What we know:
alpha+beta; Thrombin, subunit H; Pdz3 Domain; 3 domains; 6-stranded antiparallel β-barrel; 6-stranded antiparallel barrel; 13 helices; 32% strand; globular
Amino acid sequence: xxxxxxxxxxxxxxxxxxxxxxxxxxxxxxxxxxxxxxxxxxxxxxxxxxxxxxxxxxxxxxxxxxxxxxxxxxxxxxxxxxxxxxxxxxxxxxxxxxxxxxxxxxxxxxxxxxxxxxxxxxxxxxxxxxxxxxxxxxxxxxxxxxxxxxxxxxxxxxxxxxxxxxxxxxxxxxxxxxxxxxxxxxxxxxxxxxxxxxxxxxxxxxxxxxxxxxxxxxxxxxxxxxxxxxxxxxxxxxxxxxxxxxxxxxxxxxxxxxxxxxxxxxxxxxxxxxxxxxxxxxxxxxxxxxxxxxxxxxxxxxxxxxxxxxxxxxxxxxxxxxxxxxxxxxxxxxxxxxxxxxxxxxxxxxxxxxxxxxxxxxxxxxxxxxxxxxxxxxxxxxxxxxxxxxxxxxxxxxxxxxxxxxxxxxxxxxxxxxxxxxxxxxxxxxxxxxxxxxxxxxxxxxxxxxxxxxxxxxxxxxxxxxxxxxxxxxxxxxxxxxxxxxxxxxxxxxxxxxxxxx
Length: 502
């Protein structure tokens, strides 16, 4: 991609044109429902709304930056072909088209590159926003997490080479810094307080169009299970977000940031379903990155799942709001606090706990060593327990103890089938390993594997414990495919899943 340098006048033109289009669309969409066009009061109302958006754009845009990234790649193969075609190469002109569409690249005939050794540059672009007067900038990890150089352009025409302070792939948050002072910056709002239906404004550089401003509403909150990042609690908006908006701010009518624009749901460009990382989640990562350059997370040491009406009935829980604990790891903070398998967590630090993903995110936002108070329901009685959080271990360490690396690639965790678990899930007299956790969006989840599923065979070999399961899975990984015999809800089925070859 050839870097595009926008002049100051073209920025002003883009912003002015966008404001005009925005106000025009608002007028067209609201005129019919507010009152006839000839009503002076209606016109005044629309004019005030347009002025409000223009004020937000004028206030917030100077703190929004355009980011260009560059990565140097050396290819040793004499017949190297990029795994991406020109349109969907993540570092080509359509860098963000790849990230936002999240679909397989189109295959097109290419001529092999014949040089026995070639060095070339991959380039991409996106957005970010300044959060301190001394030059700290928030953006996405998928933009700057694995690059050699980051360039930042401000609205006043200045350009800087930015330093990557740190990244957090699990939340898709990154922090970079430019060497300057007295910079305009955006304040962070409390994203927990934003309500569905409230107006929001997205600012960024879609398709390289500098400082484009779009408006819409918060259409949903707490979106998770999409497989975009490890910790998901997305704000959904219909404000137009397109490739290149990634890393830019989603702001309130007060001009404060409530989210980092990150992804689009749909086959291509904007169709009215954009996703932003809540700024409260991003702020937790930001503070740790600035403080020590990396992120560590609190860890209870439990597997959790949503409490369904069917499970609530089995556990004699009248209220179906809560998070069920299938497993407690030995020696963990949860075990030390007295949490037991079968407990239902209904409160965390005085706030309701209703969804597993939400509880997991709240624990992860806390630092290791933090103390939390939980209310659990056990055998129909409420108990208050306190825990001091451990530090979350690496994915490799977690996978090694829960089925091995191959199982981790499938997106599952397993444990030995105990008498207690067998009784709970109606698996008495059976042998195998029980699935305790399934990563949203993983191949296992797509195949219908759920917590409580019993894996009885791996490639027609019976498995009775996690050691045997791990050994058979590692053998299967060499072939790239595995066939599992799964028992779930009194039915046994065979499923075939693809594994990355070693």
